[in-house]
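FAQ: What does a multi-protein file look like?

Like this. Sequence, then tokens, then the next protein.
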Amino acid sequence: MLDLYSFGNMALSFDYNPINKRPPAGIFWNPSIYYFLGEDSQNWTFVFLDWSPHGEYPVYTNRSIASSWSCQSWLVTTGGNGTTNNLTVQHNANGAVFNVSVPTVGGPDQTTFFTSPDVDCGDGCSVIEAFESSAEKPWYYKCNITVGAVHNATLPEHEVGLALRRMASSGIALQGYGLNTSLPGTKQYQVYPSQSAYGQPQIGSAKGMGQLIGQFVCSQLRYLRFSCGPSNCLSYTLC
């Protein structure tokens, strides 16, 4: 998991193109382009490469895997300056509110991403919560982040196991040790300062937050070569 967290940060080293500029299979790889943003900006696609027998001349394939998201955002009305665990969040314009407990006090001007591993939202899906602290306009976000199955996989070694898909979908919040799903309510979290790429304030943009987390997910996929046996156990090696 520590590898996944580190790999997610490496997304910042690479450019991306819109999905309509995805090269066809067999085109030589552009070393700076791995990721393609969907037309609706609701998903990132990572395209796998094939290599010549001697490890030279990588080319794009027709195989790909995507991270997608569905996010909501709410204004924080109490506790938003980052000095308390307890938030009061504005649910709607009619004055309804709800409470959120943040697993750590990260301080002002940062974004805390956190996840509960015992919450199941489907295959390859994790629920990611984010608290964007601010003295002026703090925000709370809740996202379903999903890593889908490999598209156009034709061999078992092309597949990505469910365990890894689930772990990658929550990678932005992981701390580097196992997800203990036997303890209800267990949370993992990471804090990113506002000056960092993944801590940049989205100022209530649910779309922007989903895109940010999805980019982190795709970077993890870039840095892993996947294989999974019949029992769906997880193994991986560096690309």
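And here is the next protein:
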Amino acid sequence: MTCWDGLRNFRGRRPRGSTRCVTGIPLGRTAHRAARVIGTGGLLVIAALVSAPAHAEVAFCNNFPQPVFIAIAYQQPDGSWTSQGWLRVNVGTCRSFDSARHLSSFYWRAETDWYRDTSGKQVWSAWGEDRNFAVGDYPFGTFTFAHADQSTNTGRVEAFRRFSGPATATLTFHANGGVMTTTQAEAPGAPFSVDAVRVQLSDQKDAPAVTTARQGQTIWIRVVARVNTKVANPVACVAVVPQSTGKESSPDCNNEMRGTFAERGATLGWNFPLRINLREKQNRDVMDITGWVTANGLTQRGRASVEIYR
């Protein structure tokens, strides 16, 4: 998340050349210091997700202390890109775009309006760093742009973050600026479902989830499955793919953990310790983490993400 100093008269547009700061995950050493300053102003990580709609769609949930405005960009069958927004998500609520559009791969951007931080400075916050698309200019009215990856005279071009996963997902904005992604594959009537994939700093089952970690720090990936009917010999594994590679995860991971039998109503949990290192000269990256569970001839998955920084 990037926050911008708002002390200039911008006349409807976000100011260029404004002071930049980061909460959640730093983009470098200077940003890291800024993150420490802003992150200690009483904004605590909220680990619990706001309740999201149950049907198949991507929901944006807001535990950030300000309303968040969402834009998405997705590819059309002819290869062109369309951007759409702004979707207002108030504090403590969840909202989705048109439920008829079940996208498994798209880009998203989020912004806030102006607000005063804990020091009294007027700032605004934004999320997005992977690919540029056109968005509607400030203030946050509705817009739809065709050929959104090209320049536009009626809006502005901003960076979006990539999402790729199953049709049911929740992206939650936390109070510290981190964004947690949880996804669940759909399989009506399946003998089990993957209820959660969480990133934790300990192996305790009730440890709070985190959205950020330092490179080389031991993190724990907890995969939780709910049994709907009796299952035999469940197998779980996790795969980690840096978003910077643009690759997709597969269930061919080499860290399998096996179970025996589980009756209906049981909850299964596995903890996978990981240490993730960034590539040389890389200050940060977002890791897409997929937890796979196989039992009774069926494979289900859930997903989460964590931002790793030096």
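Q: Is there any per-entry metadata?
A: Some entries carry free-text notes. For the entry above: The chain is about 5% helix and 45% strand.
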